[in-house]
Fold:
Amino acid sequence: MTQTVDTPPPSQIPLIGTLGMADIFAALKAGIYDFRRAPQFGLFFSAVYVVIGFGLITLGAGHVSWVLATSLGFPLAAPFAAVGLYEVSRRLENGQPLVWKDVLGVVWQERTRQIPWMGAIIVIYFLFWTFLAHMLFALTMGLSAMRNVMTSFDVFLTAEGLRMIGLELVVGAVLAFLLFAMTVVSLPLLLEKEIDFITAMLLSIRTVASNLFVMLVWAAMIAILSLIALAPAFLGLMVVLPVLGHATWHLYRRVLYDPV
Structure:
């Protein structure tokens, strides 16, 4: 006798709504509120990022083996940490109790759903990004790339160095926004719905395209707040990351809605 495993039926694909600037500030306010209501969860999940940041500094992230390990390991762990923050916001929204066992249990269960596939996509994306960054560095710096840039920072003040910095910033911003577009609503969507990761990513891109200006502002706010949070030895991330994670959940709830 063959035992069958019950699988939930696929969810309907949500419809895309229209966001305004007021929605961004409302989501950010809700994110701050969620963090204040359950700071222990936010601090726990954001600690993953901070610990890895300190670890990379201590171990020497400039070595190629550590760059590869980071490209493989960190993007895989990051979606699960984000899912933990989304689950906390979801439970607060529904009035459910926040129990460590239950919240971590949901994160653990995601390993058998679509989130690992998203992690794999992010890994491939980061590896391509790393390769492209090194290629642009070599193409723009020419023979000066053979110098030890860690001890010869003046090379960045040359025409080639300034061209390289500008090109890396432009290409990095485009790639970062594309990754943002693929994940901004797909990760919370995969937590709440029974939808495959490809459909979720495509829906996320369509959502960003339909609300391009507002999403550009939200992406810029994430980048600026995260950059500021890096200043005090990564410690600012302990607050900024959970607030942004909770806020992303609320923005997702505002822009996608179930068809009637």
Notes: Strands lie at 15-16, 256-257. The CA atoms of residues 8 and 252 lie 22 Å apart.
